[in-house]
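User: Hi! I have a protein structure encoded as tokens and I'd like to know what sequence might fold into it. I'm fairly new to this, so please keep things simple.
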């Protein structure tokens, strides 16, 4: 059996090993809306708007979630560091101050708590 230059213990045909990242962590989003509080599980990378709609939580989105109207504006109560950075659309809409974020443009990357507006 011949050894490859890249690996001292495996034959050349086995020198490339793929490593898969596996995580059992499931982000949770707690929504405060219309006098209710509901905590739901999310998939990493989903937007706040997608998570709300997937779980039957009413959230305005007049522009269809394209970042042009601000009707999905929400206030982040906890977990600001578990959200994607502001993108160009949020900045162009003038949304630059914490804790306000556009639900359609903000991806969840960990546990967060948000308050939906009644405006």
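Assistant: Happy to help. Inverse folding works backwards from shape to sequence: for each of the 119 positions I chose a residue that suits the local structure. Here it is:
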């Amino acid at each position: 059996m011949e050894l490859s230059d890249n690996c001292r213990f495996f034959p050349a045909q086995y020198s490339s090993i793929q490593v898969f990242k596996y995580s059992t962590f499931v982000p949770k989003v707690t929504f405060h809306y219309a006098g209710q509080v509901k905590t739901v599980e999310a998939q990493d990378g989903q937007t706040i708007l997608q998570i709300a709609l997937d779980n039957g939580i009413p959230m305005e989105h007049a522009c269809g979630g394209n970042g042009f109207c601000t009707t999905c504006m929400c206030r982040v109560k906890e977990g600001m560091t578990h959200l994607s950075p502001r993108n160009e659309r949020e900045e162009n809409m003038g949304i630059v101050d914490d804790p306000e974020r556009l639900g359609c443009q903000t991806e969840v990357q960990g546990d967060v708590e948000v308050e939906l507006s009644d405006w």
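A useful reference point when you look it over: The chain has one domain: 25-116. Feel free to ask if any position seems puzzling.
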